[in-house]
Protein 1
Amino acid sequence: MLYPDEGSSYWDFTGNVVRFGGSNWIGIGAPTVNHVIAEDNYSDNSKENNHGTDNTIDQATIVTNGAWPAAAQAIIADRFDVS
């Protein structure tokens, strides 16, 4: 889950892959989390939690059955050795 701690401000979550299953792909649980932007992300779960203030959360591209599109696969390959 993408999870900014209480009091986080001006974070930008862009270009992430969240493989989580049964919970939220992003979790903002407190009104003290503010001015967070989340865009161009991928997840296997459409649920989100945004109880913050002045946040812009664009729904992640939802992927089923592990069929990650090429853009998500590139993000994964860039961050992890998948060989």
Protein 2
Amino acid sequence: MNLPPKLLTALQSRIRGNDWHDKPRIVALGCDENFLLITASHAAVWDLSHYRTISSMLAFSQTQPRGIQNVHNIVLHAYRYQCFVAQSSNGSLIFENVPLHELEGMQGMVEPLIRDTREEEERQARMIRQRNDGRRSSLGQRQEMLRRDWGEKTQQFKMEARGLRLSLKMGISAGGITRMLGHG
């Protein structure tokens, strides 16, 4: 209710039927009818006439390679012009016109946010490496098990064929095993 008309139109244009085709990732409401909408696909719509600095930063971001994707979060003060807090995906914090009693707290958050973001990126990279190593290990174990099973089957065929010459040749690749096991 009472959303700025441009924001409401931007939101409605991203709904088809009863489903989002591009969900909102960030929605920020500011003074008067100022707003910002950034979607999951990194489309951005804004009217930030009372927040010129962040408006300029967003316009500049759109010209960069990762553009709006680097915007992690933005909060607009609803009653104070030019007052905002923005965080980028690398953890850096940008703010302007925050009340004096909040300035020290904002400055104190700058370094911890960057450090926490780096630690989280490292943690996620470790988890991905462990998951990939686990998949490789699991695939290797399955390959070895298949080799043993086929070795036993070969022996069984030789014993049953007594006097008949039976030749069985199979090629097994890692890609084939991966597809066979449903991982590809």
